[in-house]
Amino acid sequence: MDKLETSNGNILEDLEELDPTEFDIPDVEEPSLESILKEAESETEDNVSLLDNITNGFSPTSTGTPEKNISNGYLKKSEMASLSVLKSLETTSIKSGDSQASSVKKKDAPQFHGPVLAFYRMQALSNHIMSSADRINAGKPTSLAVSQLIAIGTAHGIALVFDNDQKLVHVLGSVSVGSKYGSVTALAFNMDSDRLLVGYARGQILMYDVKSGKLLRTITDAHPPGSSVLHVKFTDDPTLAVCNDSGGSVFELNFRRVMGVRSCESRCLFSGSRGEVCTIEPLHILKTIADHPLRDRHLLAMGTLTKVLVVSLRPQIKVLFSHQLNRNMTNIPLISWRLSVFVESNTRSIDPVLLFARGDVIYFFQVKNENWDNILFSHIRTMNTTYTLINVAWLNTKTILCLDSTERLHVVDEATQAELETILLENVNLVYSSATFKSIATGGNVSKALAAIGEQTCYHSMISYNGTVLLLGDLCVYATKVRQWNDRIRTSLGWPNGHQRALELALTFYNGTAKSVLGLPVDQEKRRQLVSEMILDILIEYVDLSMTKLCPDNGKLEVLIAFFKDVVPVCVDHCLHINRIDVLCDRIYERFKADCIAHTVFLECLEPYILDDRLKTISPIVMQDFVKHYEAKNMLSNVEACLLHLDVASLDLHQVLSLCWSHGLYDAILSINNRVMSDYVGPLVEMISMLTSAMAIGKQLSDNMTKLGSKLLVYVSSCFAGVQYPSGMLDPESSMAVKKQIYGCLTTPKLNVFTEEYPVLAILLKFSTQEMLNVLSLSFSEPEFQGQKGCGRVQQLVDILLRIMVETPGFTPDQIGTLFVFLARQVARRQDDQQLRVNRMLIQQIVEYLTSPLSSQEESSKHEERQQALVELLQSEVIGNEEDSVHLMKLVERAGFYHALRLLYDRNRRFDLIFETYLKDPAKKEHAFRYIRDTLQDKTVDEGEKDLLVEKVSQNIKELIKIDSDQTANLVTTVLHGSLQTVAAKLKDQPQMLYFFLKGLFNPSTSHFHDADNASLNGDLSIEPEGPNPYTSDPEMVQVYLSLMCQFDRNKVLQFLKSLESNRPSNSIEIVRRYHVDEATAYLLEENDDCSAAFMILHKVAKDKLQKFVERCENDIENSVSLDTEKLMAESKSIFESVIGLCQRSSSKLSEEQMEKLWFPLLDTVVSPRREITSDSTITLGNSNSELEKILKELAQHVLTSMMSHMSLPALLQKIIQDPAYDTGNFGEIKEILLGMLETYQYEKTLLDTTLNLLSRDRHESLSSLKKFVVHGIAPRSQYCAACRESILGFGTGDKGDSNIVIFGSGTVYHESCLKFDPAISPVVQNQPPSPYESPGRSRRSSNQTSLMNAMKPQEKRVVKERRNYVDRKRQINNVSKIFLSAKGGKESSQTQGQRIFRREGSLFAVPVPQNSRNDSSKVDDAKTYSSKIRTLSLKSGELQPQDFKLSVAAPARFF
Questions:
Q1: Angle between helices 682-696 and 732-746 (to 10 degrees)
Q2: Are the beta carbons of 1404 and 1450 closer than 8 angstroms?
């Protein structure tokens, strides 16, 4: 462990295989160098961090492993709170869980990874560093480089070179060199480790021959002076290197040797002025991969403050990739390369993986070389961490090592983002390159951004090489690498609960789910064999310690039991997992057997594993002890359950069967005989013999024998179904054999140990006739009992049943009756060629039994069963066709089998009698309506049969009304078409039934009229017809129904009267008055405009209700309010609502004086109780007083609020003030009422003002938008008329110079004269002005004009169309402008001479034009001035600023 591994070995075996399709890897296009350099620095990465809870694996304390000097740490809450939010294409948070499946199974415990890293101090090397500081004044270490050798740079300019054994090989440089060049800031070996580049703080670079220690080159002009060397790196080409200075620039170094003279040529690859580069990393291709296509491209990754770039150095410099980094520039960029094996389309390729990070985000990209000129970067994944990164390195192809800003090392699995281990670097004291990045040695001439990130830079303090990561401290060097798998397990033993943790970790290696595995073979069998041996060793050691050292010494019995309950499952689980039951039942069991408590716990812990089918075999010794233990505890049922799951072939069958027979473990006996010996009949016969002996005694069977009989029935049923008893399935061949054996056993007439015929079937029938027949009924549905052969088997069993139960004594009549029911169903179900042969006498006996009277105890359970059997016989036409059908009907009717009776009547087409059966059948009464409808609509039923049915319905109309009055009324009116008077006459002596009938007539309920399941089949005949109810127009019928409603349903009278469209008010008022239905009377009086009478009635009712309520409150017991009082209170509120509604409806028709006669008495009614309470001081109502006061106050306030919209405020105030209740001058009680009235008035006033303000604002905004629109100017697209192609600048020849110009919304410009004289517009249209909203001339063009348009070219058509639009628009403007201006109170403005009209989307503008009278010399100036004005006009969005621009006529755009 003190040596670095320098052998490359077969490096391809360590490369991880990645499938691009698994990660959905996209391709990244190549950017150009110019586009990269010109990108805005403010661009940020669109990554979102999905912050997840981080849970580390089990971590040891610092004292847990003597080899470690550092302890694992955890994140603090303050650190978690400071996490930033980033975005990414594919973002996952680092977890400590095993894999991505951990996000699905959140309840599962995280996987234990154990101690992954071996962390140690390189003692010899550290001693050399400290001694060099004293002996040669080398100073403290500043930088580190690792290859086959180790180089350490110091603060005094010296480079120490060590070999693989940590021996000092060379001391390069001296203190004088350090005083001249400064401290060593960067080191780099070439691929052969024979050259070493040393960069210094003052910018110089030296090259040494490592073998001889000779200085080969001194490079002083590789980069601009005054800057430090941040990085220097060799490429795969030993003559090519790159360096990075503190100015942020990157330079290429080409080494040459000509005629023995060594030289170095430098070329700038990237200038720091474009963005300062902080880190560089060339891609190294192993020499073992000689033909890799990227070997000669020399890829270089560079990380700036804002982005990551990848360029190729050969054959020419080319930018291949660019990726923007996040905005936080205080975090340093990190870059690392790794080769991995990718599998795509069954082909393997070795491609580089680029890792770059910044802050808390890590990106992974695959570099694919499609051909020489096409290198693609495909995104693999984005990883978000919960800490800020300052360095990152690859431990192997699957594991990365992250160093955060708190100096914690995080071991992370790259594929699953699982955090495997966290280590706090307590004593390392990492070396940071702060002075170098601040360029202190050269005067600090660096940017503030570069100086800021220098506080966290430690690029040269953490170096990875061949799976080992070296950490450079101020006085020492530490190394860390992934432990071997067995070392990780052994180290876990020293932790708390070490053996359990070690076993848990070992299982992950055994299953192949462990992360960062080192040292195990790839072959699964070999790997499992190695791991299982180690698991057994740890397990044996754990058991020994549990019985000695770890076992509680003086604990109580409960403590010991709990302890061994934790130990034993661990042993069982791991032995089952590695399939070593022999060790569990041998060495481990013998060790636990030494202690009685451990032995007991061990045996009891086996049961759940057996029942879950995880433990299928155990040794005979363990099984014997297992049975004895449960036998001693009288828990043999548990043993039986276990025997059903165990592989009995490995047990002592004699011992097990003897135990089962002696203790009655029948399920186990049957299962063992079936599985081991394939004997399905032997145990059945033996158990039948036991059941026969128990039944022969004549006493009630014991619970044990009852269970046995039930088990045998289930066993026979399972065998006939081809199912393994008690659970499981049989293969088809075994299933056929089992069915044959059981069938033969049941049909065997004689057995040696029995005296009666067919003993097995007879005993099971005597035990439970019903259940045995059910077993046979289920078995007859199997394929073996179908067809001709199957029917023969069924016939044989039926004959045997009749012989046993009917011809042989020993069965009770009930048992025989059960057989008859069974036979009836079997005979009915088998038709045609599978018909069972049963003589007619037996059929008659079956029918007689089925229709025989039942006792009261059997009636509910047996009635439906017998009826169903008889129905099946009738449907199969086995019975019912003989001459004695009348006798059969009598039997069926006597038994109350109405379903069967309907079938018999249907054969005789007695539909009227079928209807009667529906009325008699309690379960089918409501189906009578549907039957009547279906039968009367059936075309196969003749008229005579329908008449009989109608007559029978008429005779039973009262019964139908009792069932459902709504459906009866609908039936009479829609299907029967009967006379309502006739029905009413029949029901005259029963007024309540007549009311229900009429109720269904006047208020039909469609939900009862049809069966939702059958409505679509037979038509929706019973749904209420659309439109008004025709029966409400019959005055006499309405009066009868109203009278009956007043008697039997007073609460619905008012609702009924409101629903009537026509009525006789005088008769209706007389009826409701006769029965004192006050609310209905008031409604009718109000309809007759007698509001006063209606008010008197309702007012009287309200007054009486209120008085009763007050009296009830006075009579209530203190501290209690009865339900009657609450009901009376609700009724009082309801009637007062009615009175208030009446007053409100009537107030619009009455004068002020008449309204006072309505409202003031109502107000007195609600105020008078308060007046009495105030005057009578002897009234004490307890808690009901407050409730009464509250209700009276609410009523008074409600009445006053309702009055306010109809009565004047002075009249209301005067009425309130003059009330005797307030004559004492105390207005405190009415203060709330008065304030409420005033608030209502204030609210109405505010509402009115707000409405007016909104209307005014809307009008103002509308006019403002119109004004802004019409004054917005436009500019022409050309200075030539689109029609005549002459200039529009006003200095042309002829009349065109004085003509106005017109600009359309498209920017096309015309002379107004060119548009006026349009030959395509008829003279009639030009001389006859159209209406303001009509497009003139559009509909009155002649046919020759249409043909002329068709002959024109497209450009000519466009000109003509625009001309016509202009004429139409201008005529509309002349008319609409008058309307617009008159609305504003202005006058129409005439167009002034010398103005030109502009139009924009329906609005016209006029601007002045240069006059033609001016001389030619000024025309050019006029043209320039005019052009400037046109441009000015087009830029204005509000009022026109130049004074010589004037708005002449404007029309709102909405009018067009």
A1: 30
A2: yes
> Over pLDDT 90: what percentage of the chain?
31
Q: Contact 395/481 with Cβ under 8 angstroms?
A: yes
> Whole-number mean pLDDT of the chain?
77
On whether the CB atoms of residues 682 and 654 are closer than 8 A, the answer is no
Q: Which of 968, 981, 975, 956 is nearest to 1031 (CA)?
A: 981
Of 883, 892, 881, 882, which is closest to residue 914 (Cα–Cα)? Answer: 892
Note the pLDDT tens digit of each residue in 1085-1125: 878 878 888 888 888 888 888 878 777 776 664 445 566 77
| Contacts with 81 (C-beta within 8 Å, 6 or more apart), sequence order | none
Q: In this structure, are residues 488 and 116 in contact, taking their beta carbons and an 8 Å threshold? A: yes
Is residue 936 within 8 A of residue 912, CB to CB? The reply is no
Among 1098, 1075, 1193, CA closest to 1144: 1098
In the structure encoding, which two tokens stand for residue 1141, read together? 């509604």
Where do runs of H (alpha helix) occur along 1208-1230? 1209-1217
* Cβ-proximal residues to 1326 (8 Å cutoff; 6+ apart), any chain: 1337, 1367
pTM as predicted: 0.58
How far is 984 from 1039, CA to CA, in rounded Å?
Answer: 13
Which pair of tokens denotes residue 1375?
Answer: 């008319």
Q: Are 657 and 672 in contact (CB under 8 A)?
A: yes
Q: Give the DSSP H or E segment for 154.
A: strand 150-154
SS3 content of the chain, % helix, strand, coil (to 5): 50, 15, 35
Longest dimension (CA), the chain: 150
pLDDT tens for 517-561 read 999 998 999 999 999 999 999 999 999 999 988 888 766 888 889
DSSP conformation class of 588: I
- Cβ(475)–Cβ(126) under 8 Å? yes
Confidence of residue 161 (pLDDT cuts 50, 70, 90): very high
Burial degree of 1446 (CB within 10 A; 0-12, 13-18, 19+): middle
In angstroms, the CA 1404 to CA 1207 distance is 57
Count of residues for the chain? 1456
Measured CA to CA, the distance from residue 151 to residue 153 in angstroms comes to 7
Structure confidence at residue 1240 as a pLDDT band (50, 70, 90): confident
For 965-987, the three-class secondary structure string (H helix, E strand, C coil) is: HHHHHHHHHHHHCCCHHHHHHHC
CB contact set of 1435 (below 8 Å; sequence gap of 6+): 1273
Q: What does each C-alpha distance from 1273 to 290, 1306, 1369, 1437, 1448 come to in angstroms?
A: 74, 13, 18, 7, 13
Q: Please state, in angstroms and rounded to a whole number, the distance separating the CA atoms of residues 514 and 488.
A: 11
List residues bridging with 470 in a β-sheet.
463, 479
Burial 1020-1040 (b: 16+ CB within 10 A, else e): ebbeeeeeeeebbeeeebbbb
Place of tokens 């706090």: 424
pLDDT given for residue 773 in this prediction = 92
| Predicted local distance difference test score (pLDDT) of residue 1116 | 60
Is the pLDDT confidence value at 111 over 90?
no
- State the average pLDDT over residues 181-191: 95
Confidence of residue 982 (pLDDT cuts 50, 70, 90): confident
Q: Which residues contact 1350 (CB under 8 A, 6 or more apart)?
A: none
Going by C-alpha positions, the residue among 1302, 1451, 1313, 1453 that lies closest to residue 1375 is 1451
Q: Report strand pairing: 91-93 vs 374-384.
A: parallel
CB 568 within 8 A of CB 605: yes
Q: What is the pLDDT of residues 1430-1445, one digit of tens each?
A: 433 333 333 333 333 3
Cis before 726 (ω within 30): yes
